[in-house]
């Protein structure tokens, strides 16, 4: 994850216009290169397994939680702000077919994970993210 790239504040309706770059593990929207997205809205679904649906007023976005975020209590109707890695999934999932119109996904990772962090936990999370990126080149964390 390149933290020098901006985390763009986006609406669901804008996410469909983002395009993947061939040379980097990033996306571009309006000429701005990014890896992380900032979205906010109302939680409309929680499958209890770390997958939430967020409605920002322009559409529904699937949030995939990991780590400590899965342990938190997520109530339907909560207004939440999320900053996380942006992941484009080309395949339909059952939940996207059920609700229709979901075309992009966000993988929420550990904010602050860095190989140079003084925290051993954050260094370990960064190492885990790098291992996933080595094996799965198409993902954004």
Automatic annotation (TrEMBL):
<protein>
    <submittedName>
        <fullName>Uncharacterized protein</fullName>
    </submittedName>
</protein>
<dbReference type="GO" id="GO:0006281">
    <property type="term" value="P:DNA repair"/>
</dbReference>
<dbReference type="InterPro" id="IPR032245">
    <property type="entry name" value="RMI2"/>
</dbReference>
<dbReference type="GO" id="GO:2000042">
    <property type="term" value="P:negative regulation of double-strand break repair via homologous recombination"/>
</dbReference>
<dbReference type="Pfam" id="PF16100">
    <property type="entry name" value="RMI2"/>
</dbReference>
<dbReference type="InterPro" id="IPR012340">
    <property type="entry name" value="NA-bd_OB-fold"/>
</dbReference>
<dbReference type="GO" id="GO:0005829">
    <property type="term" value="C:cytosol"/>
</dbReference>
<dbReference type="GO" id="GO:0033045">
    <property type="term" value="P:regulation of sister chromatid segregation"/>
</dbReference>
<dbReference type="GO" id="GO:0016607">
    <property type="term" value="C:nuclear speck"/>
</dbReference>
<dbReference type="GO" id="GO:0043007">
    <property type="term" value="P:maintenance of rDNA"/>
</dbReference>
């Amino acid at each position: 994850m390149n933290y020098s790239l901006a985390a763009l504040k986006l609406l669901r309706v804008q996410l469909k216009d983002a395009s993947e770059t061939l040379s980097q593990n990033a996306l571009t929207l309006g000429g701005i290169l990014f890896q992380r997205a900032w979205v906010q809205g109302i939680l409309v679904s929680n499958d209890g397994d770390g997958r939430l649906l967020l409605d920002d007023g322009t559409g529904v976005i699937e949030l995939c939680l990991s780590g400590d975020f899965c342990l938190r209590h997520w109530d339907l109707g909560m207004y939440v702000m999320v900053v996380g890695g942006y992941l484009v999934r080309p395949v339909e999932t059952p939940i996207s077919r059920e609700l229709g119109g979901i075309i992009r996904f966000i993988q929420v990772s550990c904010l602050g994970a860095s190989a140079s962090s003084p925290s051993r936990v954050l260094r370990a999370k960064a190492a885990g993210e790098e291992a996933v990126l080595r094996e799965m080149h198409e993902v954004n964390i």
